[in-house]
Amino acid sequence: QRFNGVEYDFVFDVDVADGAPPLKLPYNAGDDVYTAADRFIAEHGLPMSYREQIVDFILQNAGAAAPPPQTTMMNADPFTGGGAYVPSAAPAGLSATQPQSLPPMLLYDADASKAPLMKKKLGELAGGTAISTVVDEAVQRIADGTSLQASDVEALHALATSLPSQVAFPAVDLLRLALAVAPTQVVDALYGESNGAALSLLACLSAQAATRSLGSLVSSLKCACNMHRSTSLKTHLQADSDAALMQLLSAFADGGGADSHEKVSVRQAFAALVQNHAVAISAPGADVRPDEVLSQLFLHIASLSRDADGEVVSRAKRAGQALVNYSQSTRARSAASLVGLDNL
Known about the structure:
This protein has 15 helices and 5 strands. The protein is mainly α. The strands form 2 sheets. A 3-stranded mixed beta sheet has the order 4-3-5, with helices on one face. The protein has a two-stranded antiparallel sheet with strand order 1-2. α8 packs antiparallel against α9 (about 215-225), α12 runs parallel beside α14 (about 310-325) and α13 (about 290-305) runs antiparallel to α14 (about 310-325). The longest helix has 19 residues, at about 265-280.
């Protein structure tokens, strides 16, 4: 079944209100059920108290296709199925002995059908010679919802990282889609072999931020958010005391002015990136983070929490709460207090 231009194994119909059309919950066999539930909740603004019931529903209806729940909160490719689910008025919550759930990762992958338009824009900016046959085939597979191959991701990565920063943003946007919809093993095959590919991607995104153009900022921020879907890219971001992670945030905030940009879409995307970073380093089993990492993250969170846009503030608060509740709590609360965030 197809949903938003992507082929899935299941697409569940979820009835959340009497008289309202059902919401679609895509799910792919083998994906983490909590990831699918969290993503569905975030996309539709539903209460987190629905989480356990949605997870139970997926387990019951996907059967053997759904693996046992995992602790990781990273988003994966969902897939489709039939059926309808109606949450009760008072959904069962987690017991008092269980921790609250981490916020979901925020990925940008709902517009795969627009890939041909991105390719057209790329041709206008960079010239038709920039679009090789391999790139053309990769774009078509993204638009069709066909599974991407390693050569597709490699071609889009090479294109995005080789073009001048002033004209690269459509290519970065195509790579962002590839990171979101390609099989995770295909993405990790490229970025897990060595640090070279990951470093070139980070350099590309930082250069995009420095242009301060709206298209470059939005596409590169969304691509950075989608880096968290890849195990190898996430590992690279957290290596060497999070130096790469902090440099990337600084490139967007200091170099690109993303945390105070006049366009709310830029500020929302930067807040999503901060939330993703906070969730990643707060996940069960994550290494102890240095104090300077927590401090810098809370500086960004404090800035975003004063934003006029409610979604920016919401994402900042979720990032802060993830760090306080799941990271080294005492140290995180101390870092939050230093920037005036005592009420997390």
